[in-house]
Write a structure and sequence with these properties.
Blueprint: E1 4-11, E2 16-22, H1 25-33, E3 47-54, H2 57-67, H3 70-79, H4 81-84
Antiparallel strand pairs: 1-2, 1-3
InterPro entries: GIY-YIG_endonuc, GIY-YIG_endonuc_sf, UPF0213_domain
Pfam family, one: GIY-YIG
Protein name: GIY-YIG domain-containing protein
Length: 86
């Protein structure tokens, strides 16, 4: 069974949040933390704090694009409120 993932990475010391999409979540998180992704290599280490799995690629991409909007980020921060207030 194939899944498509939308994921959220976080660097606490920089208060940096990254939202991405991948077909192989484990490999993609590893790539981020090895500095192989240009947009995140300055914010290492990154912690996987949230992910969602979708059976349909278009649904996953739509969710990723939404979470990258201001409204989507607000939704995400509300969903993960307890994590950010620990």
């Amino acid at each position: 069974m194939r899944f498509y993932y939308v994921y959220v990475l976080y660097n606490q010391s920089e208060n940096f949040i990254y939202i991405g999409y991948s077909e192989d979540l484990k490999q993609r998180v590893t790539e981020h933390n090895k500095g192989r992704v240009k947009s995140t290599k300055s914010f290492l280490p990154l912690e996987l704090i949230h992910y969602e799995a979708y059976k349909n690629k278009k649904d996953a991409k739509r969710r990723e694009l939404y979470l990258k909007t201001n409204r989507g980020r607000t939704t995400l921060l509300t969903m993960l409120k307890e994590y950010f207030t620990e």
